[in-house]
Amino acid sequence: MKRLWRYLEGHRLHAFLLVLVATGNAACQTGGWLLVRDAIDNGIRARNEHHLTVVVSIYLGVAAVGWILQAVLIRGLAGVGQRMVIGLRRDLFDHLTGLSLRYFSQQKAGWIIARLTSDVDAVSDVLSQGMPTLIANLVLLPAAVIALLIADWRLGLVVFAIVPFALALTRWFQRTSHVALVETRNRIGIVTAQIAESVSGMAVIQAFNRERRFQAQFDELNAANREQNVYTQKIFSIFFPSIEFLGVIATGAVLYTGSTLLGNHTITIGTLITALYLLQLVFQPLQELSDVYGQLQSGAAAMVKIAAILDEEPGIVEPDTPYVLPRIEGNLEIDDVTFAYGREPVLHSIDITVPAGGCLALVGESGGGKSTLARLVGRFYDPDSGAVRVDGVDLRDVALRSYRRQLGVVLQDPFLFSGTI
Length: 421
Fold this sequence. Notes:
The protein has 421 residues and is α+β, with helices and mostly antiparallel strands. The protein has helices at residues 12-44, 49-98, 101-106, 109-151, 153-160, 163-200, 202-207, 211-263, 269-310, 370-377, 400-404, and strands at 332-340, 345-354, 385-390, 393-394.
């Protein structure tokens, strides 16, 4: 997820201001319950209606300010998150268009589509929905603990006895769920790849009567995807109820300790009531952070897959100072070219010269290297040895745009893009 920080460029001041807004919102929520304590002890119990009226008025004002700050926080963080997603989508698509054909021939189309769709959507959910919850509760949690200690430090220490168990459980969930969610993203990518290949090759599947075979393959992959998702949900089903149960234990401990202190007249009833509600503000962030933590882990797993594409180096790279081709004459020279898609070469020391205005027809059996040679001329691949020259200039030294804008290509298999002409 560290890679996402660079998309905050230009928005960091805005993000910092939103953190201040979250701090103000947390202060309003916790401070409101301290006002409730004052209203109970010094207003209701003391039968002081004037004091009670003043405190209630202040409480309503604080609640209104908190509501406004929360609305600003949610909208602001969602806006920042979506701007980050736009930058990520743009960079991902731009990087894909710069990769060579070798990458696309080695990678399943469905796998790439899964990265561009479901994985980016998972990151988008984290930034637009998870981030407001994360920021708000990360600020609210320490604020609630401080307010609880202000209300009564003894009750605060009771809560601190439960916190180590919650932290240990969270650490277990972090390690276990990350591995499970990465594998879940893998399974989704495999299923998407199978669907994309089946749809694009449907004519071949039907022509050779392979519908049942492909259905069986899809059922197998779909079942593996279901099993992985069930395993992931089992981890969630252990973690979330456990966090909630720890909150119940903490509430019981505060009630027991508070009733003892109340019987000894060392705390007031207003303090005990306030401590119980502040305790909810302590475990409410823990529960909501637990919910959003699964979303964060899913987004982190998706970002790992996206980073795998962004880290892919283009196979066709221009030199630092490429030569911009003027209007080409058309003299083509293939000089001692050897090329391999994998380990075994498909072209061996090919030498061909076509003068400007000349014509060359390549005829041969399938797999003989005709299309490969055409791709080398278009510099969709670079030869492993030798050189391809146009007008005496090695294609590896030229600016690709200046060359391809003068290159005419008639594809063997036509492809129709959606749109109008």
